[in-house]
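Researcher: Re-running this chain for the archive, since the previous output was lost when a drive failed. Same request as before.
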Amino acid sequence: MSVRIDLFWSFRSPYSFMCTPQALELPKDFDVEIDVRIVMPKALRTPDFFSPDSEPRIRYILMDWKRRAKLLGLPHGWPNPDPIVQDMDTLKIAPNEEQIYIFRLMRLGVEAQRRGRGLEFIHEVGHLIWSGTPDWDKGDHLTKAAERAGLNLDDMEKTIAKDPANYDAEVEDNHKRLAALPHWGVPTFGYHQEPFFGQDRIDSLRFQLEEDGLTRAVACAV
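Model: Regenerated structure tokens:
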């Protein structure tokens, strides 16, 4: 039986977006399965993260994520629209009832995982959003991203509409799991109750998986 690894992931995190290509390789190289655990962005979980005192940290992130994406050869552009409704001049975050994008995305991410295509879905939608696709929320952008992940967007949304609170409860449970790991940020891989935090720590996770003998055998050509 494959070992299960949790991936705590946010649609508003550029570093989460950047980890998915490498995350997709893990089940190919190791006898593992990735359980995507969608969490609410820190902007909503911890609003004071964007207090006026945080401006230097925010400036750094806005600079660093772009150069990291370039290093990895990933297309990149600040989301249009931003998954979080926030005034980037004042850093003021709109209340939950005005967050028209992120709750839809989180619920879709949960449903994709329930359907066994969580990793593929966050990869496709993360790429759509963080490559700077204009109006990613309109037209057939999300529909096609879901199709590339092997899913039907319309069917997913019909299922979610039956009990959206159930999806929000699962996201809240993911917050508790992340805290118990223990960690607070994304992307974080959880393996044997040990956190591997950050897009740049996948190599550490791979090293540990190799140490534990989980490397898949390479088929030899006849």
